Amino acid sequence: MRAHLGDRLVIDSPTTGVTGRDGEIVGLRHEDGTPPYDVRWSDTDEVTLVFPGPDAHVRHTEPGAAGGSSPPGAGGTAAPHPAVAPHPADIGRRLAVERRRRGLSREETAHRARISPAYLAYLEEQPADPSAATLLALAAALGTTATALRGADVDLPPGQGHALPHPRLRELDPQECRRLLSTHGVGRVAVSAPDGHPAVVPVNYDVLGDAIVYRTAPDAVPAAAVGTEVAFEVDHVDEAMSEGWSVLAVGPAGVVADPEVVRGLARRAHTTPWAGGERDMWVSIRPTRLTGRRITPADRQPRAQD
User: Suppose 298 and one of 17, 34, 166, 236 were both cysteines; which one would form an S-S bond, judging by CB atoms 3.0 to 4.6 Å apart?
Assistant: First the structure.
């Protein structure tokens, strides 16, 4: 008997031949895939070390079940899909981003989810679709939800979770606001559009010294910020923990005219604009007012990063 990570171990009833129990193989003890195996049982979600008997067999991942054939040492079984199934690689990308955001190594995350680090590496690096039980375990290990890891909530506005029973709203000082702005990301700029109506537009931004910069097209709405005082906002919502923060920067906006500075901004840009297209006009906002707020549980002691 040989198995890959993500295969299912099926135990049949010795009298009827009907499946009596099954589970996902989440850990191998031997590189050649021979027993014993760490199995997460579908009926209890518990992980146990199993030495398969004569009534057990391995159900291998079918080619194409997770967007392609599973290479040796990795595999997956399908969990219930949302109405629009995500690309198999999306789960791995979300896993990796969430793990890094929380400062966890693969080993720490795998230990929390009770799977092998090799299996987590495969999930992050290859198109794979873990079982519902493993996805739930990974979500719990990362303090998020299986729905979020699958991306089934991408079309929902953030903040639909329940409020904390005893929330604490805290004002942030300018230093903490600058730290949360970090070096780059996606924020929203509030401008008066050319048609005279107010508009709030998301932009990919960077931080250069004391200035917030973003690039746009001369005829795009974000370009209307030039020559006016604007508001720029970034935030983060942790749905699983019902926590979050926001930072608001207010100040005059101007176009970056120095060709050398423009070339430097283009070279150091962390990403191309998500909206695509030619966007070679850079706008700079120099905040004269920087404020922020954070929501946490009332019984949590403030930390440096809070």
Answer: 166
Per residue in 200-252, pLDDT (tens digit) is 999 999 998 889 999 999 989 999 999 999 999 999 887 767 788 999 999 99
Contact 287, 247 (CB under 8 A): no
Q: Which of 221, 220, 222 is nearest to 212 (CA)?
A: 222
From the DSSP assignment, how many helices (H) and strands (E) are in the chain? 7, 13
Lookup: tokens for 98? 């969430």
Q: What is the tens place of the pLDDT at every residue in 120-153?
A: 998 888 877 788 888 888 988 998 877 778 876 5
Q: What is the pLDDT of residue 202?
A: 93
Helix (H) or strand (E) run with residue 285 in it: strand 281-285
Confidence of residue 285 (pLDDT cuts 50, 70, 90): very high
- Consecutive H or E run containing 37: strand 37-41
Cα→Cα distances 264→10, 54, 158, Å? 59, 67, 34
Nearest one of 99, 80, 94, 93 to 126, comparing CA atoms: 93
263: its two tokens: 């070339």
Q: In what order do the strands lie in the sheet with 19-28?
A: 47-50, 37-41, 19-28, 8-12, 56-59
- Neighbour count for residue 57 (Cβ, 10 Å): 15
Q: Cβ neighbours of residue 176 under 8 Å, at least 6 residues apart?
A: 292
Beta strand 184-192 pairing with 198-208: antiparallel
CA distances from 3 to 135, 162, 205, 206 (A): 20, 42, 47, 47
Predicted confidence (pLDDT) at residue 187 exceeds the cutoff of 50: yes
The half-sphere exposure of 114 on its side-chain side, counting CA atoms within 13 A, is 17
Using a CB cutoff of 8 Å and minimum separation of 24, what contacts does 59-67 make? 59/7, 59/8, 59/9, 59/10, 59/22, 60/3, 60/4, 60/7, 61/4, 61/6, 61/7, 65/129, 66/127, 66/128, 66/129, 67/127, 67/128, 67/129
